[in-house]
Amino acid sequence: MSASAINVLAALLEVRTGQHTASHRSTRMDAALTPLMRARGLDTLDDLVARLLDGRDPALAGHIVDALVNQETSFFRDTAVFDMMVEAVAAAEEQGRRVRIWSAGCSTGQEPLSLAMLFAERQEATGAPMPEIVASDISTAALARARSGRFSQFEIQRGLPIRRMMRWFEGDGSEWIARPELLRHIAFRQINLVADRPPGGAFDLILCRNVMLYLNPVPKAGAFDRLAHALAPGGLLVLGAGETVIGQTDRFEPSGRFRGFYQPAEGCSGGGRSAAKAA
């Protein structure tokens, strides 16, 4: 593969998503794009870039971005975070309104489905109201899989106890499909965090885990601004275990009540429900 081909593909990814791919990750790039090249009868990345640049395959750019975006995920990833989210949702419910949660960068759907399972089980056990769950991702392919609720045996076993698997999924050959009563709790949206407006309304809890790791500083700052605007007063942001707002943005600060979560910084409150409705 030539350096020029790698540069073209890296530039496409950065323009579309704000993500930066270092040149030393060219091997991963080649592996990620191999299925796409095979489907089009192409042998090398140079051939792929030539097809991209000739303009005769208008859908190719989107397929390339879908293949390059990191979709690593699992069910109930970091269980301690989910335990804390239950507490945060209960605290928000004390305000007397239906709580809204946004899973931003939901990949193939394991995170929002985990939320739906968690709060549906809480509702069955206690009668507590079901939060509204919105899930978004930039990838068309990932969202299609998330909406289908269909997972391989390998995927279903990653983080999902057998009890929950049998309760909320049905076997279909070598795959498992989420039950309709679980999927109906989630509204899926295609959203680019560095370019698009957040979903309508304001959110009490936003999960944006392991997305900021891949963004360059400028698009990352813009994404933080969008997330801050989407929060309801008193709302909380949840990042990945290896992420922080410190030194990245002045819009958030660590929550004093919910360890590991972030709240709007003093003087930089979220957009609020009325502001979000007016936007």
In brief:
The protein is α/β, with parallel strands linked by helices and 279 residues long.
Query: Mean of the pLDDT scores?
Result: 89
The total of helices stands at 12
DSSP E strands, number: 10
From the spread of the alpha carbons, the general shape counts as globular
Can you give a write-up of this model?
The structure is a single chain. By secondary structure, the chain is α/β, with parallel strands linked by helices. The chain has helices at 3-17, 26-39, 45-54, 60-68, 79-93, 110-126, 140-148, 153-157, 162-168, 180-183, 217-230, 272-278, and strands at 100-104, 132-137, 150-152, 169-172, 175-178, 186-190, 203-208, 231-239, 252-254, 261-264. β9 and β10 (261-264) form a beta hairpin. α1 crosses α3. The longest helix is centred in the middle third of the chain and has 17 residues, at 110-126. It is globular. The protein starts with a helix and ends with a helix. The model is unreliable at 273-279 (pLDDT under 50).
